[in-house]
Amino acid sequence: MTHPNPPGQYPSYPQQQPGQPYGQVPQQPHPGQPYPGQPYPGQPYPGQQYPGAGYGYPGQDPYAMQRPPLAGWGSRVGASLLDGLIGGLIPMVLFVVGLVMMVSAAKDTTCDSYSSSSAYQRTCTVDSVDTGAMTTGVIMFLIGTVAALVIGLVMLYKQGKTGQTWGKKIVGISVLRERDGMPTGFGMAFVRNLCHIADGFFYLGYLWPLWDEKKQTFADKIVSTVVVRTK
Q1: Shared-domain flag, residues 137 and 123
Q2: 1-26: per-residue pLDDT in tens?
Q3: Domain of residue 218, residue span
Q4: Who's near 111: CB < 8 A, 6+ residues apart?
Q5: Which residue among 104, 128, 160 closes a domain?
Q6: Residue range 166-198, pLDDT digits in tens
Q7: Does the keyword Oxidoreductase belong to this entry (predicted)?
Q8: 172 and 228 co-located in one domain
Q9: Three-class SS string for the chain?
Q10: Could you tell me if 115 and 145 lie in one domain?
Q11: Distance from C-alpha of 154 to C-alpha of 165, rounded to nearest angstrom
Q12: What is the distance between the alpha carbons of residues 190 and 149, in angstroms, rounded to a whole number?
């Protein structure tokens, strides 16, 4: 007579799961269905994020939660004035010196004036010119023009690389990309500077940060930049 189980062996019963009533056999999942406590295929485990998800609430821009405070209108005006003073001081001195030398190069000037029934007229004639002073004045004027161009490009490079010009660094503000908070680079800094032409119509674009939610000028909106405080 054969026994259903060999001697010394007992039939195996399914193990009892914690929290399951005694004697109840655990149900097997349907094909393709995960075991209890396991996520569906492609679904993250509890406490894990979906691939590529950032910090914060679902669908929320992670950079927006840690973005520095936006710069006020007054600090932006102050930075612009400082940039104009620092960047334009040397070229302005060269312009003035060159202009004075060119005017003083005219040594002898004769002026004739006469009146008629219709108007009073005055004509002046330069009798002699100091060519050395005139040449020096023209050279100074040209050097001032080149200096203004070079200083302007250096400031754009600094703003594109670090977000700050000399004036912006003193005031404590920075120009950054709105999407990720990084500096714009030289190319977009140059484009943003050109877009200030749109701000110049009745100065409306320069005044727009006073009531705009993101405190942006028209140029900021065109190239998607924001100006934030750094200190």
Answers
A1: yes
A2: 455 555 555 455 455 555 555 545 55
A3: 163-231
A4: 122, 123, 124, 125
A5: 160
A6: 999 999 999 999 999 999 999 999 999 999 999
A7: no
A8: yes
A9: CCCCCCCCCCCCCCCCCCCCCCCCCCCCCCCCCCCCCCCCCCCCCCCCCCCCCCCCCCCCCHHHHHCCCECCHHHHHHHHHHHHHHHHHHHHHHHHHHHHHHHHCEEEEEEEEEECCCCEEEEEEEEEECHHHHHHHHHHHHHHHHHHHHHHHHHHHHHHHHCCCHHHHHHCEEEEECCCCCCCCHHHHHHHHHHHHHHCHHHHHHHHHHCCCCCCCHHHHHHCEEEEECC
A10: yes
A11: 9
A12: 13
Query: Is 45 part of a structural domain of the chain?
Result: no
pLDDT band for 50, please (50, 70, 90 cuts).
Answer: very low
What was the pLDDT predicted at 132? 86
Map tokens 């004697």 to a residue.
23
Q: Do 200 and 224 lie in a common domain?
A: yes
Name the residue type at position 161. K
Both ends of the chain: CA-CA distance in Å? 93
Q: What does pTM read for this prediction?
A: 0.65
CA dihedral (221, 225, 227, 229) positive or negative: positive
The two structure tokens encoding residue 140 = 């100074």
Q: Which is it for the CA torsion 197, 202, 208, 209, positive or negative? A: positive
Rounded distance between C-alpha atoms, residue 191 and residue 196, angstroms: 9
Neighbours of 212 (CB within 10 A): 15
